[in-house]
Amino acid sequence: MDNLFSLAYQCLTEFRLDEKLSLSTLAAKTILSGDILVSPIDEDIKLLKPGRPAKPFLVEQRDLPRRNMQLAEGRAAMIHSIAHIEFNAINLAWDLIFRFQDMPKQFYLDWTTVAAEETKHFRLLQSQLHNLGYEYGCFPAHNGLWDIAEQTAHDLLLRLAVVPRILEARGLDVTPGLISRFRQIKDESTSLILELILEEEIGHVKTGTKWYRYQCKKLNLDPEEKFRQITKQFLPSNNIKKINHEARLMAGFSQAELNYLAAH
């Protein structure tokens, strides 16, 4: 019988793109079938690094060129940037599963579902790139999402607060605008993919909220007060210009949390 943590480790560390995607899909199917062993394994978590292909080249976010989405290259570059976020999200889900091996089984089933859906999102965007004559790795990208993952690697509560509830929740805010931009340039197929991603990302953030609150209860912490403390550290001031209240409420944010974010 396969071990859940061994499968997560394989998915996380595989660097060949096609193999990584296939392995992620197959591992998720195996885990979610229920025929799986959940037994901690001994690996040096401090040395744990996500597998990624040689390209895209990683640069600072400020060094990424601005693209004109009226041009095919600019549209492809935007799709590529979203695909890169989804690629990182695959690694983040498997890292979360492997790194924290003392949670209830449902935790791992929930995040395996997230990993499977992030893999699906990446494949859809990859297909759009191919339709435009490009592939993942054609454009530079930044590694900001994984940098945050490393900053929160030592603390499950911090990881759950920052990655799904701060960083991924920003996707709930900005994706409707992206959908509109693609519709304006008559790219209906990409718009439909982004609508699917938005719908499923609400579920991912909701999963983050569920387990963030579970961990707060376990540590006897007030979840709203703790979230305010964490946002002061990880969310730059004036970072949120527009909040998707409806999506965030669906994702489990309280009205008090939304009020706080809107005021800061």
Number of domains: 1
Q: Class by helix and strand content?
A: mainly alpha
Distance, first to last CA: 49 Å
Q: What share of the residues lie within helices?
A: 55-70%
Kindly report the average pLDDT value: 92
* Principal-axes shape call: globular
By CATH, the topology is Ferritin
Number of H/I helices: 10
Q: Strand content of the residues, in percent?
A: under 5%
Annotation, overall tally of beta strands: 0
3D structure, described in words:
With 264 residues, the chain is an all-alpha fold. It has a single domain, classed as Ferritin. It is 67% helix and 0% strand. The protein has helices at 4-13, 17-32, 72-99, 105-131, 144-151, 156-184, 188-218, 223-234, 245-250, 255-263. α1 packs antiparallel against α2 and α6 (156-184) runs antiparallel to α7. The longest helix has 31 residues, at 188-218. The protein is globular. The model has no long low-confidence stretch (mean pLDDT 92).
Defining traits:
mainly alpha; 0% strand; globular; 264 residues
In short:
This protein has 264 residues and is mostly helical.
Topology:
Elements: H1 4-13, H2 17-32, H3 72-99, H4 105-131, H5 144-151, H6 156-184, H7 188-218, H8 223-234, H9 245-250, H10 255-263
